[in-house]
Specification:
Arc Repressor Mutant, subunit A, 0% strand, mainly alpha
């Protein structure tokens, strides 16, 4: 159990804390982090907290309610747009923070935008990001395009990063050397070239995240920020006249 969860479970004097929704959700978050959502059951949560599984229903309705709650905890870890930086910097910091949070909670990839009963941290996060984009001059449709583009990139990269076997220079060298050795002659010359050159450069897959992020942010910065830029269907309003 993490130190945070252990502190939450005890009061001053070392006595066990009264069971609460927060304790249930923190225990559920630990289990999901350790074994994925398939490991998340009422029985395991009860065992983690030292209580009967039935007692959990006083604080959570069902597993979907737990998923709503632990997704909300993940949203609570993501940095909100700061008021003391420009909007592009705020978008960048938020993207990096989202990636870091999802790396800590890989089960959450694909779940962040799936909740039909979003919690307060979830709602506050979305509202803050939209407010920042409105402040930058985007319309509702424009802000939605920017938000969707960035999240598609972030979630897609994290998913790929979690499943790649070559996420460090060491694993790249090991895997690529084996692949190149098994390639017959000059059948795949371009792949062999890339593999060798990346090994020499000490390539690290994770560094690609900020490279791609900066390309996207550069493009976003060039977007017009007027209400007639895009309508809800993604076409220019002038083009529909």
């Amino acid at each position: 159990m993490t130190p945070e969860a252990e502190r939450a479970r005890t009061r001053k004097g070392g006595r066990r804390a009264r069971l609460s929704r927060e304790l249930v959700l923190r225990a559920a978050l630990e289990i999901a982090d350790e074994g994925g959502l398939e490991a998340l059951t009422m029985q395991r949560i009860g065992q983690r907290l030292g209580v009967e599984a039935m007692s959990l229903y006083r604080h959570v309705r069902n597993k979907e309610d737990i998923l709503d709650g632990i997704v909300d905890l993940v949203f609570g870890e993501i940095q909100l747009p700061a008021a003391d930086v420009d909007w592009l910097t705020a978008l960048r910091l938020r993207a990096v923070s989202t990636r870091e949070a999802l790396a800590r909670h890989p089960w959450a990839v694909g779940r962040m935008e799936s909740r039909v009963q979003p919690g307060p941290a979830n709602l506050h996060h979305h509202d803050a990001v939209l407010g920042m984009l409105f402040g930058a001059g985007f319309s509702s449709a424009g802000a939605t395009h920017v938000y969707s583009l960035l999240d598609a990139y972030i979630y897609g990269f994290v998913l790929q990063e979690a499943n790649t076997r070559v996420n460090t220079p060491e694993t790249l060298s090991e895997v690529t050397s084996d692949v190149i050795e098994r390639m017959a002659g000059d059948q795949y010359p371009h792949m062999q070239r890339v593999g060798r050159e990346l090994m020499i450069a000490g390539f690290e897959f994770g560094s690609e995240f900020e490279f791609g992020l900066d390309l996207i942010l550069d493009a976003i910065e060039q977007l017009p920020k007027t209400d007639d830029h895009v309508n809800a269907h993604g076409t220019t309003a002038k083009g529909t006249e």
